[in-house]
Amino acid sequence: MKKFCIDPGHGGNSIGASYKGRKEQDDCLRLSLAVKEILLTQKDVEVMLSREDDTNPSLEDRAREANAWGADYFISVHRNAFAPNKAQGVEAWVFSKVVVGGITFSQAEEIVNDLCAAAGFVNRGVKLGAPSYTDYAVNRLTNMSSCLLEVGFIDSDSDNAIFDAYFADIALSIAKSLLKNVGLEYIPPVIVGDVDGDGKVTAADARLILRASVGLEEIDLETGDIDGDGKITSSDARAALRISTGLEE
């Protein structure tokens, strides 16, 4: 099993940065929960969050729990801030003593590069914690490879627009990069009813299932047999159509 510790930054009385009513602690938790949900669809993976609600564990406790659990990778999720609409982009911070180009540095670089490619953020690269900046505790106190990821600037309207519009892509990119960093490949989960493999159940899937029920199409039983009776029938097509219109889950 590969173990990932995801640390949603701030929480509780530590709001983090804020802008136009938007709070860093909220964005961090929402994104961390989304990444966790994706990772848990994969085999041989365990995920722990340092917080799953509006609490604020100490930095020492966040690192201590990850160390005691034996996490393979630790990622602390944050949003950056500077001055309203004066900076933008994604960056990652690693422990000052890691080797540039080494494993920990390259893992963080992979996360940043993949995320910028997936969502269109400006790439600010990977930065060492010192001497230009004090090491973050989550990097200094953890025993495993770790990074602190700044997912865009919360005081940048353009970065917030990207964060909201590409939220699902951002979460998926981070999850894929984490898996890749520990030698695992992301395998898309099977969605029953998604016959054409576009990641959702649509009217097009319903039509394919209907054609398969009368022998005009060959489709995979695992995705096409929605009612689980072991065969493709018109009832599966009707179920797919209801799912596509939100009438059924």
Could you describe the 3D structure shown?
The protein has two domains: 2-181, Aminopeptidase (3-Layer(aba) Sandwich), CATH 3.40.630; 203-244, no CATH class. It is α/β, with parallel strands linked by helices. Helix 1 packs across helix 6, helix 3 (103-119) packs antiparallel against helix 6 (167-181) and helix 7 packs antiparallel against helix 9 (234-244). The protein is elongated. The chain is 39% helix and 18% strand.
Measured between the Cα atoms of the first and last residue, the distance is 31 Å
Which structural category do the helix and sheet elements fall into? alpha/beta
The CATH C-level name of the largest domain is Alpha Beta
Total separate domains: 2
Spatial strand arrangement across the major sheet: 4-1-5-8-6-7
Q: What's the assembly state of these chains?
A: single chain
Q: Return the CATH architecture of the largest domain.
A: 3-Layer(aba) Sandwich
CATH homologous superfamily descriptor of the largest domain: Zn-dependent exopeptidases
Question: Could you say what the CATH topology of the largest domain is called?
Answer: Aminopeptidase
The main β sheet shows up as: 6 strands, mixed
Can you write the helix and strand succession as a string? EEEHEHEEHEHEHHHHH
Binned strand content: 15-25%
Overall spatial form? elongated
Unreliable stretches, pLDDT < 50, 5 or more residues? Answer: none
The total beta strand count reads: 8
Tell me the radius of gyration: 21 Å
Count up the helices.
9
Q: What is the helix content?
A: 25-40%
Kindly state the mean pLDDT as a whole number?
A: 96
